[in-house]
Amino acid sequence: MIIRKLEPQDVEVFWSLRLKSLKEHPESFGSNYEEASLTAMDEVRRRFPNSADQFLLGAFGENNELTGMIGFRRESSRNLAHKGMLWGVYVDSAHQGKGIATALLRHVLEEVRSLDGLEQVYLAVVTVNEPAVRLYRSAGFEIFGTEPNALKIGSESYDEYWMVCKL
């Protein structure tokens, strides 16, 4: 497995995996498949995060296949720039259980620790995703709040834990 920052030339494989994540696990993301699938590739390319303060890491397996990803976005306001957010964490179902999410999380935390002035990283995770909650706790994240009904998919609501890792 190779973990590296995704580059603009990776946008198509990223978007394919992103859409798959939204379709297979709608309860885990604020974005939804129906809306995202209508987004033109030019718009995806324009919004693709590719800087020190906004990036995606990808895990590549055999045949250079993107098997997992994790996004990072640092807050841009001077008063908030001491913190950043993890987003879009996903490992393809065919590759789960192989330590890919653990490796991605470890790599992203190593990467962001080098950012000057960054003090903490936060994320939101649905409370019913117990494996993800355990993973984040094992990496040093702590729950600091619960947002009731954070996501609503059809008639079903999902609470989210807000978690933080002090760097």
UniProtKB/TrEMBL annotation:
InterPro entries per UniProt: Acyl_CoA_acyltransferase, GNAT_dom
Record-linked Gene3D superfamilies: 3.40.630.30
Source organism superkingdom: Bacteria
Ranges of residues in domain N-acetyltransferase: 1-167
A Pfam family it matches: Acetyltransf_1
PANTHER family named among the record's database cross-references: L-2,4-DIAMINOBUTYRIC ACID ACETYLTRANSFERASE (PTHR43072:SF60), N-ACETYLTRANSFERASE (PTHR43072)
Protein name: GNAT family N-acetyltransferase
Lineage, broadest ranks: Bacteria, Bacillati, Bacillota, Bacilli, Bacillales
